[in-house]
């Protein structure tokens, strides 16, 4: 069944879009990532204009995050104080990201910048995730116990002033660290249509030293509010939010997030990370091919 997208100006298969949203929601529930780093390029592959893909995927991430946060709250997996600080930074970052997005749009470079940034970002993250996952799996097969580093925040984080206690995360650190981290993800959410969870989650573990049991839920809590703000910014400035596309993605992602949170409790995490890494690398390669492949005919002439 096909449906017309008014802002994108295209007719698309409704089931394909819903399934795409469901797959991204699945990742959200399993890993605590918004999934926009896959939604946006996949929509572009499907033929959606990059600006519409970026703006509309932020709306989808909001839906997936709501579902994921509710599942994590039932497990007491959200540090609301830490999340509030990150949300404050994310809202400010969203405003900065909107200015950057408008500047690139006026220069006529927004599509190219989005594509190149995704290739570099996904290639780097996918490679690191694949290396870590394969190393862990091989060590387990050799009968070695995986190395578990002591949970500590980075020395630079420890040097920041004005420390607060974040009881649920088990931390006594400056709120400036999570605030700046939230600001970075806010910029990325508006300019690239990503939730930022694929950067947020590792940073919360390895930089802030947060307890693992609250990382996913707190990440989703921050993503929820920042993507909601991003949707409002795009709706009022770029006018690129396709509400029909966003609703189809929301339907799939809300269901997928609930299923993903259940999968995360049954499958070994190293295998889940490896699957995600391979998917991320595949998307990066596909986008790189799209940037460098030269079509056989650059234009065609038709007689009317």
TrEMBL record:
Compartment(s) of residence: Cell membrane; Membrane
InterPro entries xref list: TM_pro_TauE-like, TSUP/Inactive_protease-like
Superkingdom to which the source organism belongs: Bacteria
Keyword Transmembrane among UniProt keywords: yes
Transmembrane segments: 12-38, 44-71, 83-104, 116-139, 171-199, 205-228, 240-259, 271-289
Keyword field: Cell membrane, Membrane, Transmembrane, Transmembrane helix
Keyword Cell membrane assigned: yes
Topology in membrane: Multi-pass membrane protein
Major location (coarse): membrane
Signal sequence region: none
PANTHER family xref list: MEMBRANE TRANSPORTER PROTEIN MJ0441-RELATED (PTHR43701), MEMBRANE TRANSPORTER PROTEIN YTNM-RELATED (PTHR43701:SF12)
Family the entry assigns: Belongs to the 4-toluene sulfonate uptake permease (TSUP) (TC 2.A.102) family.
Protein's name according to its UniProt entry: Probable membrane transporter protein
Organism: Sphingomonas abietis
């Amino acid at each position: 069944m096909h449906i017309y997208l008014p802002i994108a100006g295209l007719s698309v298969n409704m089931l394909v879009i819903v399934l795409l949203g469901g797959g991204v929601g699945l990742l959200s529930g399993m890993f605590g990532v918004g999934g926009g780093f896959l939604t946006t390029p996949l929509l572009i592959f499907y033929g959606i204009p990059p600006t519409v893909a970026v703006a509309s995927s932020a709306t989808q991430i909001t839906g997936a995050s709501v579902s994921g946060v509710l599942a994590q709250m039932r497990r007491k997996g959200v540090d609301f104080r830490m999340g509030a600080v990150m949300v404050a930074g994310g809202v400010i970052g969203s405003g900065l990201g909107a200015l950057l997005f408008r500047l690139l749009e006026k220069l006529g470079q927004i599509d190219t910048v989005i594509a190149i940034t995704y290739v570099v970002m996904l290639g780097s993250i996918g490679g690191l995730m694949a290396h870590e996952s394969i190393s862990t799996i091989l060590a387990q097969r050799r009968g070695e116990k995986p190395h578990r580093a002591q949970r500590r925040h980075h020395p630079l984080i420890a040097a920041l002033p004005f420390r607060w206690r974040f009881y649920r995360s088990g931390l006594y650190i400056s709120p400036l660290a999570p605030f700046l981290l939230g600001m970075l993800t806010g910029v990325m959410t508006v300019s690239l249509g990503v939730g930022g969870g694929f950067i947020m989650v590792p940073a919360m573990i390895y930089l802030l030293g947060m307890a693992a049991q609250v990382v996913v839920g707190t990440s989703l809590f921050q993503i929820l509010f920042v993507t909601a703000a991003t949707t409002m910014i795009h709706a009022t400035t770029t006018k690129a939010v396709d509400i029909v596309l966003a609703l189809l993605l929301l339907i799939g992602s809300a269901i997928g997030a609930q299923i993903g949170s259940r999968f995360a409790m049954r499958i070994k995490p190293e295998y889940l990370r490896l699957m995600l890494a391979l998917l991320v690398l595949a998307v990066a390669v596909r986008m790189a091919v799209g940037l460098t492949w030269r079509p056989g005919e650059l234009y065609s002439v038709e007689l009317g």
